[in-house]
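1st attempt posting a full record on here, be nice pls
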Amino acid sequence: MIYSGKTNVGKVRLTNQDSFAIKSYASDVTVAVVCDGMGGARGGNIASETAIEYFMKSFEGEKLADLSKNPYIDATKAMSLLGHAVYNANEAVYNKAISSPELMGMGTTLVACLIIKDHMYVANVGDSRLYIDSGKKLSQITEDHSYVQFLVDVGDITPEEAKTHPYKNRITRAIGIQPDIDCDMFGVELDKYPDSCVLLCSDGLCGQVEDTQMHKTIRSPGAKKDSAQTKLDRRVDKLIDAALENGGPDNITVILLLPNQS
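the predicted structure (as tokens):
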């Protein structure tokens, strides 16, 4: 598996409240996570950084490499590890928020995946997203926890209207707001997506760049002399550049993973 990730402050914000992490525990076992903080300049930074720190700490000592050694993946174990990491991230942000008046109300989105061979386990809170590009098209796998998504679900507005709705950035779930967390968790069989590329991003990307443009960028061939890693790095840069070219009003974070390449 190869991967690449980068974050950019954008053209408007003074600080970057996005954070991300990627770590491989074996050639076919990788964890990736993106957080987009909220709660003022300092609060947003602290929320996203704290969530990332405690989310990733949860996997220490868990021998994740062993999960790929058996012919049958233990999905229950994988989902339990992922859920525990989300719980720890939520607890850490919440406890830090209530310990300081200036941090009260801070929180963060979180989208994460644990990939083991051809199996991917996903966790999502808020409106940061995970997509899979199958080569033919880009498919959004997570569902936003946002006010406009609720309006779309009940039929009050269309998906197109949601893109320009005045409350499009209002989320309905976040890490660290409450002591308990309601998180979407599910598994995806990557072998159903031939030649798959996994994209995790904050809304600084998906809120500014159309799916068709993201797909075209992810599938750009690159120079023949470039290694697969270099091509992936450049695609991440191009996705961020596209968001900047469209105004870059928010922080932009992008992770790309190619599960079937070494």
